[in-house]
Amino acid sequence: MPLSSRTLLGIPKTNLRGTSWAIPSGVSIVSTISADGDLYTVTVSSLTTASLEPPLVVFYLKRVSRSLHAVRDGGEFAVTVLAAHQDSVALRFSAPGLPRGSQGWKGIPLRPAPVTGLLIAVEGVAYFDCCLVSCFEVGDHQSILGRMLSCDGLEPSASFLHGNSEFTMFRDAGSPTVD
Description:
16% of the residues lie in helices and 44% in strands. By secondary structure, it is α+β, with helices and mostly antiparallel strands.
Protein backbone atom coordinates (compact mmCIF):
# COMPACT_ATOMS: atom_id res chain seq x y z
CA MET A 1 0.00 0.00 0.00
CA PRO A 2 1.61 3.28 -1.08
CA LEU A 3 2.12 5.97 1.53
CA SER A 4 0.01 9.06 1.10
CA SER A 5 1.16 12.57 2.01
CA ARG A 6 -1.38 12.46 4.85
CA THR A 7 0.41 9.48 6.35
CA LEU A 8 3.78 11.22 6.11
CA LEU A 9 2.43 14.41 7.66
CA GLY A 10 1.75 12.48 10.85
CA ILE A 11 5.43 11.57 11.42
CA PRO A 12 6.87 13.54 14.35
CA LYS A 13 9.90 15.64 13.39
CA THR A 14 12.01 13.93 16.04
CA ASN A 15 11.32 10.52 14.45
CA LEU A 16 12.07 11.81 10.97
CA ARG A 17 15.25 13.57 12.04
CA GLY A 18 16.52 10.58 14.02
CA THR A 19 15.79 8.16 11.20
CA SER A 20 17.36 10.45 8.59
CA TRP A 21 20.54 10.74 10.64
CA ALA A 22 21.03 6.99 10.25
CA ILE A 23 22.06 7.65 6.65
CA PRO A 24 25.80 8.39 6.57
CA SER A 25 26.77 11.31 4.38
CA GLY A 26 29.99 13.01 3.36
CA VAL A 27 30.87 16.32 4.98
CA SER A 28 32.00 19.23 2.82
CA ILE A 29 32.36 22.98 3.03
CA VAL A 30 31.09 25.36 0.38
CA SER A 31 32.61 28.80 -0.16
CA THR A 32 31.09 31.58 -2.21
CA ILE A 33 31.24 35.34 -2.63
CA SER A 34 27.98 37.25 -2.58
CA ALA A 35 27.11 39.88 -5.17
CA ASP A 36 28.24 42.44 -2.55
CA GLY A 37 31.70 40.84 -2.38
CA ASP A 38 31.28 39.16 1.03
CA LEU A 39 32.86 35.73 1.55
CA TYR A 40 30.54 33.03 2.93
CA THR A 41 31.44 29.47 3.89
CA VAL A 42 29.05 26.80 5.14
CA THR A 43 29.26 23.12 6.08
CA VAL A 44 27.03 20.73 4.12
CA SER A 45 26.37 17.01 4.41
CA SER A 46 24.17 16.71 1.35
CA LEU A 47 26.66 16.96 -1.53
CA THR A 48 26.45 14.46 -4.36
CA THR A 49 27.34 14.32 -8.00
CA ALA A 50 24.19 14.68 -10.04
CA SER A 51 25.59 13.93 -13.49
CA LEU A 52 28.85 13.13 -15.23
CA GLU A 53 27.69 14.51 -18.59
CA PRO A 54 27.32 17.38 -18.09
CA PRO A 55 29.41 17.37 -14.88
CA LEU A 56 27.00 18.49 -12.14
CA VAL A 57 26.95 18.52 -8.33
CA VAL A 58 24.01 19.21 -6.04
CA PHE A 59 23.65 20.10 -2.36
CA TYR A 60 20.93 21.53 -0.14
CA LEU A 61 20.74 24.52 2.20
CA LYS A 62 17.95 25.75 4.46
CA ARG A 63 15.82 28.41 2.80
CA VAL A 64 16.75 30.89 5.55
CA SER A 65 20.51 30.39 5.10
CA ARG A 66 22.53 33.52 4.35
CA SER A 67 24.93 31.29 2.43
CA LEU A 68 22.07 30.23 0.16
CA HIS A 69 21.40 33.84 -0.76
CA ALA A 70 25.12 34.42 -1.34
CA VAL A 71 25.39 31.40 -3.67
CA ARG A 72 22.32 32.49 -5.63
CA ASP A 73 23.49 36.10 -5.89
CA GLY A 74 27.16 35.33 -6.58
CA GLY A 75 26.54 32.54 -9.07
CA GLU A 76 29.68 30.54 -8.22
CA PHE A 77 30.84 28.25 -5.42
CA ALA A 78 33.73 25.98 -4.50
CA VAL A 79 33.28 22.76 -2.52
CA THR A 80 35.96 21.07 -0.43
CA VAL A 81 35.20 17.45 0.47
CA LEU A 82 36.62 17.21 3.98
CA ALA A 83 39.10 14.63 5.22
CA ALA A 84 38.47 12.63 8.39
CA HIS A 85 40.79 14.81 10.50
CA GLN A 86 38.94 18.03 9.57
CA ASP A 87 36.14 17.84 12.14
CA SER A 88 37.16 21.26 13.52
CA VAL A 89 36.74 22.77 10.04
CA ALA A 90 33.28 21.23 9.69
CA LEU A 91 32.25 22.51 13.11
CA ARG A 92 33.65 25.99 12.47
CA PHE A 93 31.50 26.54 9.39
CA SER A 94 28.37 24.89 10.79
CA ALA A 95 28.08 27.02 13.91
CA PRO A 96 25.54 29.83 14.13
CA GLY A 97 27.31 33.18 14.38
CA LEU A 98 30.40 31.73 12.73
CA PRO A 99 33.20 34.14 11.82
CA ARG A 100 32.49 35.91 8.55
CA GLY A 101 34.77 36.40 5.60
CA SER A 102 38.41 35.44 5.66
CA GLN A 103 38.41 35.43 9.51
CA GLY A 104 36.55 32.13 9.40
CA TRP A 105 39.42 30.60 7.42
CA LYS A 106 42.13 31.73 9.86
CA GLY A 107 44.51 28.82 10.51
CA ILE A 108 43.08 26.62 7.72
CA PRO A 109 45.55 25.92 4.89
CA LEU A 110 43.85 27.14 1.72
CA ARG A 111 44.29 28.03 -1.90
CA PRO A 112 42.09 29.57 -4.56
CA ALA A 113 40.09 27.24 -6.79
CA PRO A 114 41.54 27.32 -10.32
CA VAL A 115 38.59 28.83 -12.21
CA THR A 116 36.49 30.86 -9.77
CA GLY A 117 39.27 31.75 -7.34
CA LEU A 118 37.03 30.82 -4.40
CA LEU A 119 38.63 29.26 -1.32
CA ILE A 120 39.29 25.55 -0.98
CA ALA A 121 40.85 23.80 2.02
CA VAL A 122 44.00 22.09 0.71
CA GLU A 123 43.94 19.35 3.37
CA GLY A 124 40.58 18.11 2.07
CA VAL A 125 40.10 14.98 0.00
CA ALA A 126 38.83 16.68 -3.19
CA TYR A 127 37.36 19.90 -4.52
CA PHE A 128 34.75 21.00 -7.05
CA ASP A 129 34.91 24.49 -8.57
CA CYS A 130 31.42 25.34 -9.87
CA CYS A 131 29.08 27.84 -11.44
CA LEU A 132 25.44 27.91 -10.41
CA VAL A 133 23.00 26.23 -12.79
CA SER A 134 19.79 26.45 -10.77
CA CYS A 135 18.16 26.57 -7.35
CA PHE A 136 14.74 25.21 -6.51
CA GLU A 137 12.67 24.64 -3.40
CA VAL A 138 12.68 21.22 -1.81
CA GLY A 139 10.53 21.45 1.33
CA ASP A 140 12.25 23.68 3.88
CA HIS A 141 15.50 23.64 1.87
CA GLN A 142 16.68 24.75 -1.54
CA SER A 143 18.57 22.52 -3.93
CA ILE A 144 21.68 24.13 -5.41
CA LEU A 145 22.74 22.60 -8.71
CA GLY A 146 26.16 23.54 -10.04
CA ARG A 147 28.18 22.77 -13.12
CA MET A 148 31.73 21.66 -12.40
CA LEU A 149 34.26 23.97 -14.02
CA SER A 150 37.16 22.16 -12.42
CA CYS A 151 37.63 19.32 -9.93
CA ASP A 152 40.46 17.25 -8.58
CA GLY A 153 41.70 15.22 -5.66
CA LEU A 154 43.64 16.97 -2.90
CA GLU A 155 45.16 14.87 -0.09
CA PRO A 156 44.89 11.08 -0.17
CA SER A 157 43.04 10.59 3.11
CA ALA A 158 40.00 8.98 4.65
CA SER A 159 36.79 10.87 3.94
CA PHE A 160 34.89 12.63 6.71
CA LEU A 161 31.34 11.43 7.28
CA HIS A 162 28.41 12.27 9.51
CA GLY A 163 25.85 9.70 10.58
CA ASN A 164 23.83 8.85 13.69
CA SER A 165 24.77 12.29 15.08
CA GLU A 166 28.45 11.30 15.12
CA PHE A 167 31.52 12.03 13.05
CA THR A 168 32.72 8.98 11.17
CA MET A 169 35.34 8.14 8.57
CA PHE A 170 35.81 5.62 5.80
CA ARG A 171 39.21 3.99 6.11
CA ASP A 172 38.58 1.91 3.01
CA ALA A 173 35.56 1.07 0.88
CA GLY A 174 32.93 -0.53 3.01
CA SER A 175 34.47 -0.28 6.48
CA PRO A 176 33.17 2.77 8.35
CA THR A 177 34.82 3.48 11.68
CA VAL A 178 33.52 5.76 14.42
CA ASP A 179 36.14 7.90 16.17
